[in-house]
Amino acid sequence: MAEPNRRQLAQPRVTARILRQTAKAMLPFYRKIAGNRTFAAQWSAAVVNADLSLMGSLLSQIPTLAGVENYGTNGIGYFISFPYPLPVAFYTNGTTIPPGTVQFTFNTRVHRTVALAVIPFYRKLSASPSYAEALAAAINRNDTRRVRTLIRDQIKTKALQTITIENLGVALRFKTRFSKYPYRNLLFQENM
Fold first, then answer.
1. Which of 51, 90, 93, 138 has a CA positioned 20 to 30 A from the CA of residue 80?
2. How many Å apart are CA 116 and CA 31, to the nearest integer?
3. CA pair distance 113, 134, nearest whole angstrom
């Protein structure tokens, strides 16, 4: 195996291309979760039961995710990862209850609410190169104020409590009346 070159060893940075491609792949999934109660309930069951086979079967119904191989669950959420060239390796998206809060719980109604809320954000991110450039630049500068402004322009719900920069990505924390637990929609670079 070849040694990574100097550019590959450089400090990783998120790019607009990575954000756009990840959002473009995930947008149909969020639309399906928000618009199809049966699909959403099956997905929640797969998450809670750590049923990777069912998750794979459900993902295969989404053309942009049909070939994805890197997905998983921790019983309180899920993560779908996309491979990118080094130094990034994998960029991940998912929704989860914060670890240590509860076990084997994932509320379909909350997930559908979160999915509906994030659709405008993922749509804008996937369709607008200038928006993706602005968000990537703000994340790389660790400019939380700018990141919040960019995301709040797209996600209007009061259920969105906080927006933070984490792992060269964003963490969106939602709290709804349908659950006593907060849910986080995450878009981030995995640490290798």
1. 138
2. 7
3. 26
- The neighbour count for residue 157, using CB atoms within 10 Å, is 14
Cα–Cα distance for residue pair 35/30, rounded to 1 Å: 8
Indicate the range of 27-41, 51-65, 98-112, 133-147 predicted with least confidence: 98-112
3-state secondary structure of 23: helix
Q: SS3 for 167?
A: coil
For 64-118, the DSSP string reads GGTT--EEEE-SSEEEEEEEETTTTEEEEEEEEPPTTS-SS---HHHHHHHHHHH
Count other Cβ atoms within 10 Å, centred on residue 69: 10
The whole-number average pLDDT for the span 116-122 is: 98
Nearest Cα to 45, choosing from 33, 36, 54, 37? 54
Query: What is the DSSP code (8-state) at residue 12?
Result: P
- Edge to edge, the sheet with strand 183-189 lists 70-73, 77-84, 89-96, 183-189, 169-174, 160-166
Spell out a b/e string for 26-54, using b for 16 or more CB atoms within 10 Å of the CB, else e: bbebbbbbbeeeebbebbbebbbeebeee
DSSP 8-state class, residue 52: H
